[in-house]
Amino acid sequence: MPAEWCEVHHVIPWQQGGPTDVDNLVLLCRRHHTAHHAGSYRIEMRHGVPWVQLPEGHDPERPWVRNTTHQHHRIADRIARTLLQPQLPWDDTDPDTAAA
Fold first, then answer.
1. Three-state DSSP class for 74?
2. Pick from 34, 26, 40: which is nearest to 70 by CA?
3. What CA–CA distance (Å, rounded) separates 59 from 47?
4. Of 57, 56, 52, 85, which is closest to residue 69 (Cα–Cα)?
5. Collapsing DSSP states into helix, strand and coil, what is residue 62?
6. Read out DSSP for 28-75?
7. Taking the model in full, what pTM does it have?
């Protein structure tokens, strides 16, 4: 579901001291947000990645799983490694400092 159709959820509720930052927030569609608050399944963050314990009706063993459909953490890592690294003055990739 597109992010603009989702609701932001605090994994650790802010009433219990949970921070409002990306390490404690997940996007949930309204249906799953409501189901989570009703106690159907649990969410926890592991190294900045949300993991979900599925409802008992879905799987009696209730394993912890994560959404691997979208690998946004890999995209973010690639951006951080390439686009956000400071360019050194002698970096040939910077057109303003490349030799003519």
1. helix
2. 26
3. 25
4. 52
5. coil
6. E-HHHHHHHHTTS-EEEEETTEEEEE--TTT-TT--EE---S--HHHH
7. 0.62
In the chain, alpha helices (H): 30-37, 72-82
Query: Checking phi first, is residue 89 left (phi over 0); if not, alpha (psi -120 to 50) or beta?
Result: alpha
Specify the DSSP class assigned to residue 26.
E
**CB 16, CB 10: distance < 8 Å:** no
Q: Catalogue the long-range contacts made by 14-23 (C-beta closer than 8 Å, 24 or more residues apart).
A: 22/48, 23/48
Structure tokens of 99?
């030799």
Report which residue type is found at 76. A
Any idea which residue has 């890592």 for tokens? 77
26 token code pair = 């997940």
What are the sequence ranges of the domains in the chain? 3-82
For the stretch 47-83, pLDDT in tens is: 888 899 988 887 788 899 888 776 666 666 666 666 6
